[in-house]
Here is the input.
Amino acid sequence: MKRYIKAAIKNISEEEEDFRWDLAADPTTDSRILAQLATDEDWTVRANVARHPNTDVATLQKLAEEHFAPVLVAVSENPNTPTSILMRLADYDIYKAAKNSIEHPNATPELLDKIADSDSYATRAEVADSPMASVKTLDKLSHDEFSSVRVRVAHNKNTAADTLAGMVTDRNIDVLYQVARNPNISVEALNAMQAYVDTMRSVSDREFVQRTIDQELAERGVK
Here is the structure.
């Protein structure tokens, strides 16, 4: 077996591109062969190596230093990619890699906090929607300029009562609805939201939010 692997490694660069691609995708390919294929000139071969379950951490680390998005995304798809490499991928600020990292089995609240600093509102929204997002991260995102991020913060069951209290005067009606429906919001914060609702110019918005507040208070037995 060892002689076969050595022979394969010796001759692999001379093989046709299709063969190298298939070898990198074969679930039985040895990690030593994958390490060599990780330097292939064809990025699709390297991407196959990046997502391969037999690829070792050292090879994944090298691939994570590559400044080519499809390969970096493939690294984020590998279930064996450690948190340290996912942290490195966050530096590239690639939406698909970030989304994979957020959902990765090795994701941590610290990783999500780093990803939350992304320049992409879509990436920040993915963090705000995650059940792994920490109280600190959600509080940071509660001030986001994009309402689509704030809506997800307001909906997240990890969002703290203090953060929700700071969102009761949000200018977006969808945010206010989610804030009012979050089980962590206090009665005091709901009353503060009610006072804010009274200042709204739009009658339909005012009535919509008011109904939501009344419903939430009724469910808590507050008159």
Residues 140-223 form one domain. The CA atoms of residues 61 and 219 lie 52 Å apart. The chain has 16 helices and no strands.
